[in-house]
Amino acid sequence: MLKKRLVGVITVKDGWAVQSFGYRRHLPLGHPEYLAENLDRWGADEILVLSIDRTRRDLGPDLDLVRRLGGMGLSTPLSYGGGIRTVAEAGAIIQAGAERVCVDAIMRLNAPVVRGISALIGAQAVIGALPLSSVLGGLELLDYTSGRSSPLTVGDLSLFDARVVSEALIIDWRNEGYVGAFDNDLIRLFPAVDVPLIVFGGVNRATQLEKLLELERVAAVGVGNVLSYREHAVQILKRQTGGARLRPALSVGISR
Amino acid sequence: MSKITVGIVDYGVGNHASVRHALNDLGWRCRTSGEAAVLDACDLLLLPGVGAFRPAIEAIRARSLDTYLVEQAERNRPLLGVCLGMQLLAQASYEGGFSHGLGLVPGEVVELPPPHWHIGWNTIDQVQTDPLFRASDGQAFYFNHSYAYRGPIEFQICRTTAGEEFASAIRKGRIVGVQFHPEKSQAAGRSLLRQLIGGLCDA
Q: Does a cis peptide bond (omega within 30 degrees of 0) precede residue B152?
């Protein structure tokens, strides 16, 4: 049976892992490598690194970081998002050691590039990030480069419908970093019903995870800050969540 | 054999650090190369792969590694294909249009049925008795693919269900392919790699 995934999300700004609150406030946590090492050791199902300042500053992807992470020999799948502008850059990320790439702004700015990325590395290796908020019974998509939100349109989802992108990373950007705050309306109102979802932003309580994982369209939950402050945080969260939907927690280093 | 050397076939696509680390952790030497002379000196060839079929097989052909790999298979050298590396062992793929593969295992690579991809941790179920896979039967491994092998049942060792069943491990003599990423499958992956490489070199 295909298990649902607990994805450890590492948010990176200026090369440092940060604790992020609502896409606005950031507190430094340390080197991303240390967080990745912990997530790997504790048995996260996937590690997603999001370099949040690369697109805004037109820096391209942080290939040095991906190379460093790739060179660590992580035994956990690694995905990277941030700053991707070209097909070649996405290819370089895979070459540097990631299994998947996460694209955001470029889906709206240059869809042909995303199609090219998908042709090169396969749609299964492409995640599409959508920072969303619910407003008056509808969804709004945040353009984080300008800080402005606008209603989510059919066009915003065309790459998902065309199977160019395999999973949607639904980010509750307003509630990101806050305890148990994820807005379930983002899932309820999301119109592309066949697209598997990774939900992230304000997801950090076991009971909340369990309810989200019960939803058929939720393939994975992304958890960030809460995994950074406690030894064996992944194993503990998995055990608290329970159920057969997640791969069982590793027993190494933690008492039963 | 006192110490096994694994030759990671480098055709310019994908990163080999994870495979290399996993193999080194298991106590084996690795050589990563696209040069016949280097690969000739290895005990087992490992064909990795991340990405789409067509650019990968084109990269292999551009380096004349297709001819080399076919010759090595004819000499009965052990060969392990991982993920896309398994698909490349087949005769053909329909990903991105029709492309010929290496033709080392009869069968072809076809698109998965809806939802059209298979991403995450899933279990493998042994459908033919094979000592290399016995200890891993029922274990979960990391998959990330949208195409899968379809071929004669005699070459299918393990199957996995994702919507429909597909072959997650294939074998023809000393040639083995796994659709998942053992190097990214934590303890279960390391355990299987130990069995596969040790077993294939002793076979």
A: no
